[in-house]
Design a protein that fits this description.
It is a single chain. This protein is of the alpha/beta class. It has a single domain (2-147), classed as Nucleotidyltransferase, domain 5, CATH 3.30.420.40. The protein contains 4 helices and 6 strands. The chain has a 6-stranded mixed β-sheet with strand order 4-3-2-1-5-6. A hairpin with a 4-residue loop joins β1 (2-6) and β2. The longest helix is centred in the last third of the chain and has 19 residues, at 129-147. The two termini are 20 Å apart.
């Protein structure tokens, strides 16, 4: 299991899974960063359930790698992860919000008349920071695969 983090000023998205599968995702307030990162170290995801957006918490599992977006506020996240001795890889997060919109519609197919609206004009009905984190995770995995 790999973790992706989309850091932000007020909130951040976090996703767990692989390139093909989203196991669990959440959007948490920035002030809860320490507690959420502690979940990575312990494998106890119970404290994150109140911010769950997708999937089921992977309790008992620890990520083998944390992929951290290199945009807004990534420095403090990197500092905390390093202090906790958690490996993290900085990943380019440009355009991941657009990727997150596509991921949202892949997970939640529109129905009825909404299918007639072009994908580029559809706006997800919720924040998608967690899916931007999944996009960061996917990008990091693709980058590693391409280097081989």
């Amino acid at each position: 299991m790999i973790c992706g983090i989309d850091p932000g000023r007020e909130k951040f998205g976090i996703a767990f899974g692989s390139v093909d599968e989203l196991m669990f995702s959440a959007i948490a307030p920035r002030e809860k960063m320490g507690g959420v990162l502690e979940c990575l170290a312990t494998g106890d995801f119970e404290p994150m359930l109140e911010w769950r957006m997708e999937g089921r918490a992977p309790n008992g599992m620890k990520p083998s790698l944390v992929c951290l977006g290199n945009g807004t506020s990534h420095g403090i996240f990197k500092e905390k992860l390093e202090a906790m001795k958690i490996d993290c890889a900085l990943t380019d997060e440009r355009m991941t919000t657009l990727e997150a919109r596509n991921l949202y519609w892949r997970l939640h197919r529109p129905s009825g008349i909404a299918r007639m609206i072009p994908k580029s004009l559809r706006i997800p009905p919720r924040p998608i920071d967690d899916l931007a984190a999944w996009a960061i995770l996917q990008r990091a995995c693709r980058d590693v695969a391409n280097r081989r």
